[in-house]
From TrEMBL:
Residues included from the entire protein: 1 to 212 of 464
Residues of the Helicase ATP-binding domain: 35-206
Name of this chain's protein: Candidate ATP-dependent RNA helicase
Family according to the record: Belongs to the DEAD box helicase family.
UniProt domain DEAD-box RNA helicase Q: residue ranges: 4-32
Motif (Q motif): 4-32
Amino acid sequence: MPATAFSTLPLSPATLANLDRLGYREMTAIQAASLPPALLGKDLIAQAKTGSGKTAAFALALLANLNPRRFAVQSLVLCPTRELADQVTAEVRRLARAEDNTKVVTLTGGVPLRGQLTTLEHGAHVVVGTPGRVLDHLERGSLRLDALNTLVLDEADRMLDMGFLDDIAKVVKQCPPQRQTLLFSATYPEGIARLAARFMREPVTVKVAAQH
Ligand code: ADP
Ligand code: MG
């Protein structure tokens, strides 16, 4: 069995069968580097270029922490844009086991609040959103994060470039301190190190260098 087979990971048979059905036969380099520490529950900083499969890496980690019988928001993924949030939502839904009925909700700006409020009233396991809109829901009381176990900062470099640091800090303040935090980024500017020092606990850093 190659070292990059998903079956080397502590994933359930149903999840492995689902990956196979999706045509995900082998892990990409960043998945092979980040999934073992992430599945051990460690905080993680993962850096790899766009298109390297970072979404599935954090999606499998947050789904492994999820109890589908507990109907509360257990994972939050913050993304820089609505388009990226929609892509992440689609990937998490694909990777979730059908029998778990995992409810994934997208909360981004540029979409009327009313529909999001109604959706949240019906409950969710996973929230994927942009920092401003997620904060808006936290301040309205329409979203609670007290049952959160996994926080993902996706495209962290872009979120910093777009000026989301203050909103991210306010959202993190409402997350339980004993959560797992996973940070994914294509580049590693100084701001990422400061973000990690502020919001993460002894993070493991993995980096996949660009191929030449
Ligand atoms: P990134 O977030 O690093 O830019 P994505 O998560 O969007 O990259 O993944 C890029 C593409 O690779 C997606 O179309 C995804 O479905 C596909 N992909 C991810 N992991 C695998 C895998 N292990 N095997 C095959 N395809 C994969
Ligand atoms: Mg990505």
